[in-house]
Specification:
EC 2.2.1.6, four-stranded antiparallel β-sheet, 4 helices, five-stranded antiparallel β-sheet, Alpha-Beta Plaits, amino-acid biosynthesis, branched-chain amino acid biosynthesis, 2 domains, ACT_dom, 9 strands, 186 residues, alpha+beta
Length: 186
């Protein structure tokens, strides 16, 4: 008889899930990765995800320290807590990675995204598109007799909701920047 006892409960259905504090439920996590700004770093980070079959919901990268040659990669991904821990550990092993933060578990954070949406239509559909844009505080950045291009900034859920309402009104194209996120407070 083995000395190992598996705790009974919600996580006892798998012999591989020996840590009762982990679940099998996929969660959305926002990771902030500070990296050295040098050729090939982004490819190594992306390779980590693709090589292990992990998906990236959103990816943004920009230089944040010109003198220190540092860039920040913000990645939104989904996975079980075990997979998220594995991703963070593997990211930390990449030589050019300076720091990895899981904004989802480290406390409150602020996420924003920018999107541009082209809506084509005439008559009542144009009027309704403008009315909804006003409600969502979207700006008209281009207008022709047949279309509008709206710019909207906010949480990804806000942008999703706006796009869903624009689809029946003639949404023909959308471009999104991806999530930018910062932890709140000190």
């Amino acid at each position: 008889m083995s000395a190992l006892k598996i705790k009974k409960g919600a996580n006892s259905h798998s012999a591989y899930n020996l840590r009762p504090d982990f679940s099998d439920v996929e969660e959305r996590h926002t990771l902030a990765v500070l990296v050295e700004n040098e050729p090939g770093v982004l490819a190594r980070v992306i390779g980590l995800f693709s090589g292990r079959g992990y998906n990236i919901d959103s990816l943004t990268v920009a230089e944040v320290d010109h003198t220190g040659h540092l860039s920040r990669i913000t990645i939104v991904t989904r996975g079980t807590p075990q997979i998220i821990e594995q991703i963070k550990a593997q990211l930390g092993r990449i030589i050019s990675v300076r720091d990895v933060h899981d904004l989802t578990v480290e406390g409150a954070s602020v996420e924003r995204e920018l999107a541009m949406l082209k809506v084509t239509g005439t008559g009542d559909k144009r009027v309704e598109a403008l009315r909804l844009a006003d409600i969502f505080r979207a700006n008209v950045v281009d207008s022709t007799l047949e279309s509008f291009v709206f710019e909207i900034t906010g949480a990804p859920e806000k942008i999703d909701a706006f796009a869903d309402l624009m689809r029946p009104l003639g949404l023909s194209e959308i471009a999104r920047t991806g999530v930018a996120a910062l932890s709140r407070g000190e």
